[in-house]
Amino acid sequence: AGSQLREIFDKINNLLSGKPVQSGGRTVSVTQHPQGLDFVYYKLAEKFVSQGEEEVASHRDAAFPIAVVASGIWELHPRVGDLFLAHLHKKCPYSVPFYPALKDGTSMEEYQRMLGYQIKDSKMEEQDHFLKRMSGLIRLYAAIIQLRWPYGNKQGTHPHGLNYGWRWLAQMLNMEPLADVTATLLFDFLEVCGNALMKQYQAQFWKMLLLIREDYIPRYD
Asked: Which GO terms describe its molecular function (predicted)?
């Protein structure tokens, strides 16, 4: 609900603005430690990303309320946005987009981590679970680039708007598709922000879809 989102947003914004905030039954403030603000920036960005691979992966529509709060905080506190992208790119290199290559001297376990797989007790996570997490992350990213906090007063441009989504899509189509991963991410990305991209780019967007259908998808064969 909008009132709940406003309460969450205001609490985060107040904390980042140096105001005292109630948490866990006590009052906290980033001014209590010289590195307090940097620490909260880092952990907040990390939390937004983890919500993508956990909450959004399990509940697809959760991308939108999380994204609208994240977008609004990003607009007021740009450092959070920088750190969000850093955490996102580490968890999901395909959000760059980037397909890490296996280099000499890199162990297979380390390479799997580079690809975004979770490794526990030297065992790689199942492919279905991996794709589900990547789907949640790219859905959150696709939601953020098209949403703005609706209760703000700023009239400036979106801090990471649809132009970044257009660039991501174009770069993805300039890379050879990767089995399973590319198809999953393209579907989720277009399902979430395809309509917004169509409204902004119109004929260019339809040309991009034709390219996907007639040239890109056949490369999977």
From this structure: inositol hexakisphosphate binding; phospholipid binding; translation initiation factor binding
